[in-house]
Structures
1.
Amino acid sequence: MVYRSLVRPILFRLPPETAHELALHSLPLFCKFVERPFESPMLNTDLFNLRFRNPVGLAAGFDKDGVALESLAALGFGFIEAGTLTLHAQPGNPKPRMFRLAADQALINRAGFNNSGAAAFVKRVEHRRPDCVLGISIGKSKITPLEEATADYLGSFELVYKFADYVAINVSSPNTPQLRELQQSEQLTSLLVELQTRNRALQKRHGRLTPVPLLVKISPDLERRDLEMIVEVIERLQIDGIIATNTTISRDHLRTDKSRVEACGAGGLSGKPLTTRATQMIAALYRLTGGRIPLIGVGGIFTAEDAWEKICAGASLIQVYTGFIYKGPSIVRQINEGLVEILRREGFAKIDEAVGSRAKEIEGNR
Ligand SMILES: Cc1cc2nc3c(=O)[nH]c(=O)nc-3n(C[C@H](O)[C@H](O)[C@H](O)COP(=O)(O)O)c2cc1C
């Protein structure tokens, strides 16, 4: 409530990126006033040999450099995906590069992986791990040509390996030129083969019992045949999971004036307008994989009902970004409390029992 009546009006007067920086850096102060996180054994989820205390995660891009991971964990997230990190530190695209479409509860961004690089990240989090599962997202540096993308990903992978509970391979940001081409069959296969090979080598070197779980984050702008191909590659290469979805380049069905939307320019759209598209994609992936590959559902989740819809479509875990901006830190508790209520109402004892329970119906609504 305080967020919506007091904090958000102040933050929303500032340019979106300034508000974001301010929020991120003042979190340690703010955290002292947050209630203890909501907990329930009904929300515990075991996946990838990891224990998630609840299924609500913070999506990649919010804390790219890992400057506030401990404070974010204190808000009650079950997991945080830091990054996207690149091998080379880079400033990202020129500002302004982040825009609010308040009438649509949406954002447009073309941040372009602004980050201080994988090595700097590792130095920062080495002694300051958050008290929850930590995923680390890696992408391609802008200066690296697409043909050399694999070496760039491998460089970041080696650096973050020891610190990541899972690694997310981001091949779906619309804001790095050509990055999405890495979702094509040949490119994706060669990238993932190399990453898995390195993963197994590092496993031996570090004496881990299992390789680090690798997940691939995909775009909502893919066609059905692309999904089929991606699932085939992912199953063949024993990739551990899929994160669906990143932001969309579509501008369909927006309430905001067309001229205002156009004035924002290029970038990925996130938030409410993405909800249904992302949910349907999750349902399609769940059906294509027969539920064998865990899915993390992300895109336009604002409420427990939104999260429930993603879970019933096939997501074992969910993430928020834009909903967190619009609703504030209490969104974590609201979703978790709401999920427990829904589980009780629907007669499920645990989240994992509900995963994919309505995938067929939801996919059919396309
Ligand atoms: C400002 C901004 C920056 C983002 N940066 C990244 C990023 O670095 N890596 C990534 O995988 N996704 C990034 N995303 C995408 C989100 O992680 C998420 O997939 C997407 O916004 C859909 O979820 P939402 O509707 O809850 O925001 C970013 C999104 C926003 C709004």
2.
Amino acid sequence: MTLIRIEDEKWELIKEVPIETWKTLLKQLEAAEVEIPNACRTGMCAACMCYIEKWAEHVVKNLKWEPAFPLWEDEVMTCIAGVEETDEIIILQTMS
Ligand code: FES
């Protein structure tokens, strides 16, 4: 398990969620009752995009390894992304 801290647009804590590694973030965040906007759930629309504030090196941006919406270094689409095992707390900011 890896811990993810989800913050809102003002960088205020929404929730800290333990995440299973190598499984998509969006489903796990929804299961933890964290609301992330989404639409296609295939990595093509960017509705589920979050900013990565800390520990981007532990974020696996595309578990499907298929073409997806292009992103900047600090952006991640939670519907196709996962995380590696780490003791660090990965910090994401929602765009909503
Ligand atoms: S929901 Fe469309 S890219 Fe994630």
